[in-house]
Amino acid sequence: MKLIDNVYAQLKQDIFNAGYTPNELIVERDIAEKYGVSKVTAGEALHRLCAEGHLTSYPRSGYMVTTLTPREMEQLKRMRIAVESLVIDIICAEVNDETILSLYSSVVPDVDGIEGASTKNSKFHMDMARQTGDKYVISMMETLLGSASRVEQYVSPEMRVAWQNYHKLIVEALLKRDAGTAKRCLVEDINQR
To answer: Which range has the worst mean pLDDT, 79-83, 89-93, 160-164?
Structure first.
C-alpha cells in the first residue's frame, strides 16, 4: 500500500470514528505531524477526502468535516435501513446463535457516559454487518456509518437508553430468526435521531 493510501485510509477512519468534530479545523501541518508524513502527502490525502465530500476546504485556513444537510440525512437513513435490512436477512439465514449472541458485547453499555456513545452505537451496527461475512455489505456499512458520524449531535441519556433497548431487541429477534421484528426495531432505532 502506498504511503498516501495509508494516510488517506487512517484519516478517513478517524473522520468516520468521529475523531474530528464538524466544527474542528483540520490543518495540513497537523496531519503531516500526526501521521509522520510530508505536508504534500497529507495534502493529497485531505484533497481526496474533499473530493469524496467528507471534508470541506477553507483556503489558507484548513479543512473541516462536511456536515450533512437535512435532505442528505434523510437519504442516509433510507440507505441505512435498506442495507441493514439486508444484513438482518443474511444473519437470520446464515449466522449461528453463538455468533449472534456476541452482539450483546456491542450493545451501548454505559448509559451515564456521554463520550463515545455515537461510536459505540455505530460499532453495534458495524458488528452486525461484519457477521454477514459479505465484503460488499461491510464496505457499504462502513461508508454509511462514516457519513452518519458527520452529523454533529448531542446524545442525551434518554437516547443512549433507547439505543440499548433497540439493540437488545434486535439481538433477541435475530436469535429467534424473526427478521420482521428485527427490522421494525432497526427502523425505529435509526429514525429516532
So the answer is: 160-164
* Terminal alpha carbon distance of the chain: 37
58 pairs with which residues across the strands? 62
- Distance in angstroms (rounded) separating the CA atoms of residues 17 and 177: 30
Structural domains of the chain sorted by starting position, each given as residue range(s) with its CATH number in brackets: 3-65 (1.10.10.10), 70-191 (1.20.120.530)
Helix or strand or coil: residue 64? strand
Q: How far apart are CA 80 and CA 145, in angstroms?
A: 8
What pLDDT, in 10s, does the model give residues 136-149? 999 999 888 877 76
Helix ranges restricted to H, the chain: 3-16, 28-35, 39-51, 70-94, 97-101, 117-130, 135-148, 157-175, 179-191
- Taking only Cα atoms into account, the Rg of the chain, rounded to an integer number of angstroms, comes to 18
d(CA 15, CA 133): 24
Q: Please name the amino acid found at residue 107.
A: V
Shortest CA distance to 147 belongs to which of 122, 173, 165, 167?
A: 122
